[in-house]
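Q: Please design a sequence for this.
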């Protein structure tokens, strides 16, 4: 998908497969430009990751260009100074580490292509960053119940919203995996129904459907009349305020706005988003005696440490202890 790349540098000529490339790369020759564009087209499959890496490369080579550096002259010291400047500009440690990872991976690609003799970012360390608890805001159990109960189910849009939020909650799905679901990704295995999620890296994640989610999906599909369209998107956009659905899939911004509207209508005080339901689901599972390793498998996490970031059981313990402080 190289045609999706937009690299900000007004001096750069258009190049087949990309809108523009940095002038510093263009100055190194057409073969280097080709190799540069191929990195984003061939190595980065996730669209969000690609966009982030494009921004990182644009920023880095723009910085190098402003300091009069040619591609072959870039060394570890230059990368280190650039990394330091990102922190001084107020960029968070995770964002700085992501940008450094992008430059390191890009130079690995250029080294393999014999564009440069070594990777100047290989020896550069990013800022230290340790996370013990995730920052995702999560609704309380009462808020989650109130929001779901407040969704009107006398129309297909309300049934869609309840089924979509239920999918995020009961399957621990990322919003991107939920919006990518097709009707055929809800399917029977024996007497039980299952859901199939498309996770990062093109992986498929399948799991049994919770009985409550099954009821909500059945009600939504019956009202929408899309059961036979197995290759069509499962969660579809609404046609304005007509109460009818289109054939187009909802996007992450669509889901975020929908959750915001539903939260406001239900009087939910916590500022929540799409990922809030993933945290709420994992926490509820663990509160009810679930095992961390099973939560990890259900969430599709490669590491249990990632799953642990969604475990908010300790917050209630902390609150109970704070309330012991009295005069």
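A: Design:
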């Amino acid at each position: 998908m190289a045609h999706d790349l937009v690299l900000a540098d007004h001096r750069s000529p258009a190049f087949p497969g990309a809108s523009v490339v940095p002038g510093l790369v263009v100055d190194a020759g057409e073969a280097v430009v080709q190799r540069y564009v191929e990195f984003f087209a061939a190595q980065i499959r996730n669209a969000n990751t690609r966009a982030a890496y494009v921004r990182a490369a644009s920023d880095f080579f723009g910085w190098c260009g402003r300091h009069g550096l040619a591609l072959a002259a870039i060394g570890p010291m230059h990368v280190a100074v650039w990394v330091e400047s990102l922190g001084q500009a107020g960029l968070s440690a995770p964002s700085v580490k992501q940008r450094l990872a992008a430059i390191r991976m890009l130079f690995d690609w250029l080294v393999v292509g014999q564009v440069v003799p070594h990777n100047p970012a290989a020896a550069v360390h990013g800022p230290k960053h340790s996370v013990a608890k995730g920052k995702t805001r999560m609704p309380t159990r009462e808020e989650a119940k109130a929001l779901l109960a407040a969704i009107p189910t006398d129309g297909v849009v309300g049934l869609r919203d309840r089924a979509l939020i239920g999918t995020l909650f009961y399957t621990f799905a990322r919003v991107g995996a939920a919006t990518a679901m097709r009707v055929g990704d809800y399917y029977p295995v024996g007497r039980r129904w299952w859901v199939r999620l498309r996770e990062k890296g093109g992986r498929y994640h399948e799991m049994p459907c919770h009985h409550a989610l099954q009821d909500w999906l059945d009600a939504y599909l019956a009202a929408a009349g899309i059961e036979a369209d197995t290759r069509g998107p499962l969660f579809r956009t609404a046609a304005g305020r007509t109460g009818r659905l289109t054939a187009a899939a909802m996007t992450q911004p669509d889901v975020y706005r929908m959750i915001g509207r539903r939260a406001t209508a239900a009087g939910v005080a916590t500022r929540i988003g799409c990922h809030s339901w993933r945290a709420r689901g994992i926490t509820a599972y663990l509160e009810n005696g679930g095992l961390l390793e099973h939560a990890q498998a259900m969430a599709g996490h490669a590491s249990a440490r990632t799953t642990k970031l969604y475990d908010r059981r300790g917050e209630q313990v902390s609150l109970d202890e704070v309330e012991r402080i009295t005069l």
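Q: Thanks. Anything notable?
A: The longest strand covers residues 192-198. Residues 1-18 have pLDDT under 50 and may be disordered.
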